[in-house]
Design brief:
Blueprint: H1 2-36, H2 42-47, H3 52-77, H4 86-117
Helix pairs in contact: 1-3, 3-4
Length: about 140
């Protein structure tokens, strides 16, 4: 059972990693094409939405953290039952979870950058019209 879970998790992780690389490559190509053309940025519109790739990264980070914390509790409870190299496995796992969070943070920075380059908020600013605040448009 644990072997099937490990294989499934490995394939899911590889799929999300490959999808991340492909998405970054496609967005980079779109960004370069948008810079050459006079059309508004299509890449910026894509980055402003949460995609299934984002959900995959969040799921990988959450599942990885839960698995690592469960393993850490088991190691701390009975350290003699685990070999010495198991600590290395835990450190690698925490590194992978950290990299997943770093990718999510990079995605957040790209989203904020795209939002600012597209002009900011989608709604017009009516700061100069406080007398119309109680009426619907």
């Amino acid at each position: 059972m644990f072997t099937i879970l490990a294989v499934f998790t490995a394939f899911f992780g590889l799929f999300v990693t490959a999808a991340s690389a492909y998405t970054a490559w496609m967005l980079h190509r779109m960004w370069k094409r948008d810079l050459r053309s006079a059309a508004p940025g299509h890449a910026a519109e894509i980055l402003q939405r949460i995609t299934p790739l984002d959900y995959g990264q969040f799921a990988l980070t959450a599942i990885g953290m839960v698995m690592l914390l469960a393993d850490l509790v088991a190691v701390l409870r009975d350290a003699d039952a685990f070999p010495d190299y198991h600590i290395g496995y835990l450190l690698c796992g925490f590194l992978f979870v950290f990299l997943g969070m770093l990718m999510s943070f990079g995605r957040l920075l790209l989203t904020v950058r795209a939002w600012r380059s597209s002009g900011g908020a989608a709604f017009p600013h009516h700061h100069g019209q406080p007398h119309r605040a109680d009426k619907a448009e």
